[in-house]
């Protein structure tokens, strides 16, 4: 079974707006419980702010605490699911890329730090004062969303932009000026991430990406080392491992088939590569993940 990829139109709403959705988190959970009860992907951008509740939010095999004041940001294609210990509350909205970028032609979603790269944490902790400010903005969007008024879409996208700006200011608050990089370096990193996402299955060497970017492999490695403190090869490997993890635990395909789909010449090579990067064989990783799922379900039934 493949990981389901959800689209905006699947979610229940009061007033339709084809490329945008917002709800209180408790209502969202109640209305769409069947859709989000297991790990899934989205084909849209998602933002959620928790004002109450505790639990764990797993995003691409990284676990983050759910607590009041925590915000999360997901880009299309990321796998995630929620595990709540206490009843959550807050706001959630999601939208297509076009919903935002057709209104702000000179600004892309990828320019916000939390959507910029899979290297950046999809998580932010807010102060009580910021929670109040942002909750008011979320509430204003929700009110506008439920009403039939002129300029509805324009107002909503403008408020979304304000929310993203507020989040970005908080997200980058602790970045030291000495760690800011030339725009040319960040542009190369952004393009590299896009190229890796498109080609990582069949192009695993830095030379291919350097050629596509019209720069030398040496210069590419220098840029990536400077901006991420990693090598180009490490970024490629991390993307391969992430996809491997997704397929291993969220599909019913055999491990040899997964190896083939990721274009490894032999399963033994894939297994050695995976263990080198994760410390676990693909088989043990799948087994351990399934055992954790069963334990979680049993705890809920007690």
TrEMBL record:
InterPro entries for this protein: AraC-bd, Homeodomain-like_sf, HTH-like, HTH_AraC, RmlC-like_jellyroll
Record has Electron transport as a keyword: no
Domain (HTH araC/xylS-type) ranges: 190-288
PANTHER family: ARAC-FAMILY TRANSCRIPTIONAL REGULATOR, TRANSCRIPTIONAL REGULATORY PROTEIN
Protein name as annotated: AraC family transcriptional regulator
Record flagged with keyword Transcription regulation: yes
SUPFAM superfamilies: Homeodomain-like, Regulatory protein AraC
Keyword terms, alphabetized: DNA-binding, Transcription, Transcription regulation
PROSITE patterns attached to this UniProt entry: HTH_ARAC_FAMILY_2
Organism: Zunongwangia endophytica
